[in-house]
Amino acid sequence: MKTRPIGAAVVAVTALLLAGCASGGSGGSGGTDAAPSGASSPVATRPAAPEGELPAELQSALQKVVDDTMAEYEVPGAAVGVWVPGEGSWTSATGLADVEKELPVSTDMVWPIRSVTKSYTVTLLLQLVDEGRASLDDTIDQYLDGVTDGDTITLRQLAGMTSGNADYTNKAFQDVFAEDPTRIFTLDELNSFALGQPARSAPGTDRVYTNSNINFLGAVIEKITGEPFSEVLQERVLDPLGQTGTEYIVDTTTWAAPHPTGYIVDDGVPEPQQENSSVLQAAGSMFSTLDDGRVWADTLGDGTLVSAGSQSAREEGGPLDAGPPYDLYALGIGETDGWWGHNGEGLGFTAATFHDPQSGASIVVYMNESNNPDAHPADQTFRRLAEVLANGVSS
Q1: 293 in helix, strand or coil?
Q2: What single DSSP character describes residue 53?
Q3: Domain map (residue ranges) of the chain
């Protein structure tokens, strides 16, 4: 087993940062503030998992979905959970977390969740809107200097991927990264590569999924609160929900071991990827456990940490022409067949964290393979598990 050389590492990271970029349907700010000025964000506690286990026949059908999907896309390992109120819970650890070490996956491992982080970041923004400390229709230049069209782009457009702004994955960034692929970047450094760059499109026209949109919002959150993004996240979300297995990690020497290794499969051979989550920041630097993923799926889908108005605003969006596989993308959240949540992908990992508001069910999938040319493995697994729940074990 070998890691990719520096040149290939730059390509892999660039692919990670560009993964899911899309131009699409009409955006626009529209609407009003999510909540009246001065309204406070709701307080939440950790939701409990459904009691008992899902029926044995259903568990077998769910495991078959996992096994078949892993075989189809050559995924080394997966941690998967399905929780259905009134029916029970099911978690599964399948395959290898580390191929070379022959380390099996366990259900308590900490996984990179990549762009699922975006849903946390936008939640923080909506909390500040609920408190009257920001408006979704504020322009980004009120908080961050140097953004192209910053006097026109709104926070709503950034959260909904309709800003038209360029991402930071340009040659300047690639050159700096190539010099030292282990370098720990800061949020401000990543944002600096996007400042002043030519716009992709006029604000509010194309729906283009980029990390810079959310990293700009990370800077807004720091500006409003006067605290580092990681501390705001800890105080407002992780601590209230008891997310003791979830961390914002930019220095992966602190990543709890044993942990999974990420892979890109090349001609049937899983190639381990060098982890450097600092290249993602507020757009994708979070790591989590399976049970914490359950808690976040429930919380995000129910809108527990924000006002009803903010939850309604969060679910206003439109389809992406290319990129992450959602039916529509809204404000830091996507919708697929009535399930709301977020996907993540890159540097050897894919994740899917979704909740069905109608049934109250949640599905979380973590896999250690990315950049599959045919599919997003975790999303495909989520969709197939959701189909089993909808149609019964015969599906």
Answers
A1: helix
A2: B
A3: 6-29+44-133+228-391
**pLDDT for residue 392:** 82
Q: How far is CA 348 from the centre of its chain?
A: 14
End-to-end CA distance of the chain: 38
- Tell me what pLDDT residue 43 has: 74
pLDDT of 14 reads 58
Closest CA to 206 of 238, 170, 165, 178: 165
Query: Contact 323/342 with Cβ under 8 angstroms?
Result: no
Q: Which residue has the tokens 């609160």?
A: 225
Asked whether the beta carbons of 331 and 159 are under 8 A apart, the reply is yes
* Domain 6-29+44-133+228-391 in CATH 3.30.200.20: no
Nearest to 126 by CA among 284, 248, 343, 305: 305
Contact by Cβ (8 Å): 355, 362: yes
Would you give the DSSP letter of residue 140? Answer: G
In this structure, is the dihedral angle defined by the CA atoms of residues 319, 322, 323 and 325, taken in order, positive or negative? Answer: positive
- CB-side exposure of 67: number of CA atoms within 13 Å? 6
Give the sheet arrangement for strand 339-346, strand by strand.
Answer: 103-104, 88-98, 77-84, 362-367, 349-355, 339-346, 334-336, 328-329
Structure tokens at 382: 């989520």
CA neighbor of 91 nearest in space, from 99, 81, 101: 81
Beta bridge partners of 61: none
C-alpha distances out from residue 265 to 76, 93, 136, 373, Å: 9, 20, 41, 10
In this prediction, residue 12 carries a pLDDT of: 57
**Residue-level pLDDT at 326:** 95
Q: In the structure encoding, which two tokens stand for residue 361, read together?
A: 């069910």
Q: What is the rounded distance in angstroms from the CA atom of residue 293 to the CA atom of residue 280?
A: 19
Which spans in 163-319 are helix H? 171-179, 187-192, 211-225, 229-233, 290-302, 308-314
pLDDT at residue 322, as a whole number: 58
What gap in Å lies between CA 388 and CA 395, rounded to an integer?
Answer: 6
Please state whether beta strands 362-367 and 77-84 pair in parallel, antiparallel, or not at all (unpaired). antiparallel
Instruction: Flag residues of the chain having pLDDT under 50.
Output: 1-6, 20-38, 395
Bridge pairing between strands 328-329 and 334-336: antiparallel
> What is the structure's pLDDT at 218?
98
State the pLDDT at residue 10: 56
